[in-house]
Amino acid sequence: MTQLALVIDLNVCVGCHSCVTNCKQWNTSGAAGPLVDENPYDKDPTGTFFNRVQTFEVGSYPQTETMHFPKSCLHCEDPPCVPVCPTGASYKRKEDGIVLVDYDKCIGCKYCSWACPYGVREFDEERKVMTKCTLCVDRIYNEKLPEAERKPSCVIACPTGARIFGDVHDPESTASKAISERGGYPLMPECGTRPANHYLPRHKTSMPIRSEQLYRSDNPLKVDSIEPIPMPPAHEDFTT
Amino acid sequence: MQHKTFAQIESRYFYALTALGALIAGAGMYAAYYIEEHGHVVTGMNNHIVWGLPHVFAIFMIVAASGVLNVASVGSVFGKHVYKARAPLAGLLSIALLAGGLTVLMLDLGRPDHVIVAATHYNPTSVFAWNVLLYSGLFATVALYLWTMMEKRMNPWSKPAGLLVFAWRIILTTGTGLIFAFLVARQAYASAVLPPMFIVLSFAWGLAVFLIVQSVMFSWNELELNPAIQKRLKNLLGIFIVGALYFVAAYHLTNLYFARQTAFEHFILLNGGIYPWLFWGGYVLLGSALPLLLIFHPALGKTRCVLAASALVILGAFALLYVFIIGGQAFPLEIFSGYEVISSSFGDGQIASYAPSLPEILLGGGGLGIAFLITTVGVRALNFLPHDDPKAVQQD
Known about the structure:
The complex is a heterodimer.
Chain A: E1 4-9, H1 18-29, E2 51-58, E3 65-72, H2 81-84, E4 90-92, E5 99-101, H3 111-115, E6 122-124, E7 129-131, H4 137-140, H5 153-157, E8 163-167, H6 174-181, E9 198-200, H7 211-214
Parallel strand pairs in A: 1-9
Antiparallel strand pairs in A: 1-8, 2-3, 4-5, 6-7
Chain B: H1 11-38, H2 53-67, H3 70-78, H4 81-84, H5 87-107, H6 117-120, H7 127-150, H8 158-181, H9 194-220, H10 227-257, H11 262-271, H12 274-296, H13 303-330, H14 358-381, H15 390-395
């Protein structure tokens, strides 16, 4: 069974919010929208966003790092929001595994929001229905678009290519290979929801080199009576 | 003891009370229209706290609608005349509270105009959908029970109907508890103790409502309540308050035992701002300890004390539900287990804030207004007030 999903590379995400704004632009103009924008620019912005980039400061000063964490519906393989919906408005498509909301059936009880452990359900305060990421279902199958553009709008927008879209059940897909080769992990696997979206971990780019790798104690040049490069002192003597 | 065959609230009082109830209910309906017109942005609710104050009112009324049937159940199940005489009033109150609670619940939905979809597209795996059936069923079973009591030909069926209502109300309150017990996503819930806790809470809250309404209705109808009956009911209320405290304590103590729940318990019980104040001050002190003192202290326990204790139990119920529903949502989802989130954009991992808006307060109050209106008109129009036989009281 196909399971479409996003694989997000936290190593290269710079938190520019291009995915947020492009998602909002596409979805507010398309079949999923309009998405309310009550107070989009102030300190505490409000409004409906299918995709949000959370920015965290990790660690304590001076050992701090900034971490950007894009989060949208994870299209769980066992989504907890689906069985709790009283009208069956929340459903998971068999053909591609996308979790969607049928707005005609949604009564706005918001119980799915209680059930989602990831907090990615978005209650649209103006239309008063529950909304969420559709993986741009109205885009990825749209034959009027050039084939290269049949991807979720957040994927197209990302300037660093941090978002990979594909079938995570197909071992040959770029998304699956990224997960298997680069240690991709799901969010909160302990919940047992089997999120389809995965994250690629951040890596430090430093390369530690030990002195033994640079200086050989049995330098072969010694045989040719050439003075070997002296070994560095084991401990630097700061007193002299 | 004065015996009257029918309720006789003096007309001018009746119309004044009806007008008051209609005014409160009307304000609630206007608030619902206002929210519907402007969207939920005019409420204090947001993407983190999706159920606000109206749900506190609605769940109180639904739980109390089940609990108010206590006296009817004791009458039917154990055949006690004193309680059986109160069954019609209990039935009416149950219908009134359920109607008020469901009205608030429906009008607080995003799209109350689509509520019929809940009947046409029924999802059998949803506990929320089960409750739709349970609420409708309680209306039907209580109406049937009232019919068997008030229609002489049907009197022989009143006991089986009472047993049916008893079973249904226990299942209904279990269902209400399950709405929260099935939630594994949030730390405040997902506990098997919640359904029995809601059942015992319903006993206390329902009986408190019943005692107040009974006293007020007797007073408005210039009837006198037998002190022996009053004493028996107030002792029952005391036992229910202790039972409720026991379950609430068990719920929090089991949470404290689990390492991953301790942060949540610290939030609710110690450092969560308004929530610990409401829990300890509102529920434990004012809503439980003080009523127990008023009921069981040898120098107290008279009519006024029982009324005050009942009112305090209701106050405590609102405090507990506010902490349980809104505090439970305000505590953040644990997305990065083992890490404390100090700050984040969009509020992930942080304590969510909530301030109820006026339309929400009016909507919740409107539900109480509807329940009051139905009770006042019902008592006036039909023979719902208890007629106590002093001999039967002594025999029981």
